[in-house]
């Protein structure tokens, strides 16, 4: 149904609320302390043993330490309130700094590990020793990295329970790049420590240093995969990824059920931050709706959406003439999302 009513006023942008980052900050600080101590220990172990895998792990921990600094910076910057130059707030700075963290994992961790591993493989036998020191460092590192990983996993599990999702589903759908980065880093760290220990043991048993170099290369490849995954996810969020499927479907249904709205023509969402979503909808109003009620309807829709989904911080409602093709395409998209929920 088409409407010739004047358009409803856009809801005024509300000040962006700071994202709740208390638990995320504690998670990052735990990871920072662990990685800083481990980086020094691994470097000492590498110098004593001459192990390429130990040097690769030291580079890994240095990269992780730098990344935690980036993440702390992102948590602080994202809490700045909206201003005239950034009317939607600074929530996306979390995605920017997390993207830099992913690049740090690749450059400082992955490339160094691969290059040093190849050098060890091609360089033949070198000086080796101090195996006991290296093993002790690896064991302590596993405990420290495991502690950090457990804290991050607990946070994800808590958020999964709050959202009614499985741990894996929460990790896939979460828009919080901070905790996802810590989980990915610590998981890669534990795997890398296992590879380093294996390479070191085979080097000791066989006397062939290329086992150690191979372990370093594998560590670098693990870091490259982690960096690629985190970089891709944060890049998508930074350029404007849509909200999660259940929120989009729920908002569509809620708007469509409002008295006075004939149908939803188009619904667009975008993450403004980990806990902030912008929603814009074009709707076809009933012909019988008085012009004086359009503003009340717009306010009612905004209030209802924000009460049910607090992360929807910006709502824009645009009454427009019926567009059957666009409305049908939107409906098909919503049905597709509904099947995924």
Automatic annotation (TrEMBL):
Matches recorded under NCBIfam families: CDF (TIGR01297)
Every Cation efflux protein transmembrane domain range: 29-238
Domain of life: Bacteria
One BP term from GO: zinc ion transport
Compartments (UniProt record): Membrane
UniProt keyword annotation of Transmembrane helix present: yes
Entries under InterPro entries matching the protein: Cation_efflux, Cation_efflux_CTD_sf, Cation_efflux_TM, Cation_efflux_TMD_sf, SLC30A9
Name under which the protein is recorded: Cation diffusion facilitator family transporter
A cellular-component GO term for this protein: membrane
Membrane protein topology class: Multi-pass membrane protein
Region Disordered: start-end pairs: 1-23
Keywords: Membrane, Transmembrane, Transmembrane helix, Transport
Membrane spanning residue stretches: 95-115, 130-150, 210-232
SUPFAM superfamilies, alphabetized: Cation efflux protein cytoplasmic domain-like, Cation efflux protein transmembrane domain-like
A GO term for molecular function: monoatomic cation transmembrane transporter activity
